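The data layer described in this paper is built around a simple, fixed record for each protein. Such a record has a labelled line for the sequence and another for the backbone structure tokens. For reference, a complete record is included directly beneath this paragraph.
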Amino acid sequence: MAKWTYLAGIGVVVIGALGIQIGRPVGAATLTSTLTPPHMTASLQMDWPSGPESYLAVSPGGEVGAAGADQPIPVGSVTKMMTAYLLLQKYPLGLYSPGPSVTITAHDVHEYQQDILSQQSVAKVVQGEKLSERKILEGLLVASGNNIAHIAANWVSGSSQAFTQLMNQEAKKLGLHHTHFVGPSGLNPGNVSTPRDETIIAEKAMQIPVFRQIVAMPQISWPDSSRPIENFNYVVGHDGITGVKTGSTLAAGGCFVFSAPRTIGSHTVTIFGAVLGQQGTKQLPQLQSALNDGVSLINQLTAQLKPVSLVQKGQVVGRIQAPWTHSVSLIANQSVSTVMWPGEHVQERIHWSGGQTGSLSITAGSQHWSIPLMLSAPLSQPSLIYRLTRGL
């Protein structure tokens, strides 16, 4: 009897030991990344304009670089981008539609005549004529008529004062922290902004097809005008430049907000940017100086843009290792490539919670991708034999 009691006791001890062994933690599977972030030249090489402030961005992509203090300075007729943008918010317009019309009043004609006397940029108006929304936009963005800016403001808000309040409200909504408007035309030097803020406005407005179409026009026809009105943006239509707006006053100097689509490898991106405050010389007027500098920035950046593969479908991006089995690979389920410039940073992070799938997050500038991942083989669970024999 004592013998069987002894053996039973041993059995209890063995079973207890086996239970403890089986219940012990088996260790966690670990993830090791095999990704190598793309290597780019250390820094962007740019010969920035001598004027006070300049800015460059790529869409999609984000901010590339800037020069100057990034402080509010007068912007002249670049203001009219916001005026046109708000007109289109109030009265959306299709690409091939003239849109609603506004009737020119005696006040509009008087303002036009006063603007001529003070040598402002204008577009002729005649009392009683009807100008379509499209013509108003052309007069704003191509002819850069200060009188047209006030007609648009009155049409949208009832007065230039009320419209100016709307402009500042919209600037705040768009996050333009260094922009302030005192009128719809830009003649007043109290209209101030920065190249970064003006580029944000341009990118936003250029998402509207009819705005994009009009700013790309080298010239327009105009009622009661025997000759076409030339775009003050003399370089539009050359070297792939599609806009956006110029400005030139004594206070603002030469200003140029630009857009230029570029094909880099299999990608199409748009270079956006702005040059503000160019003073020019006796030989080179301030507006021409700003245009030249804008073209130079576009060409310099274009030469440094490169197509870059961030991940390939089927690429092993990480390995899962567990002490009870052989390692398995995490594999990307799609390819991602983009356009990059020297100095741009790429952040990559693998997300895996222990299952059969995961994801890869990639951030480059303002772009973000989430790529699905899958295991190359199922990750097995620890076997009973492994649980019993580990550590022995």
Summary: The chain has a mean pLDDT of 91. The chain has two domains: 22-40+309-389, 53-304. Residues 2-23 form the longest helix (22 residues).
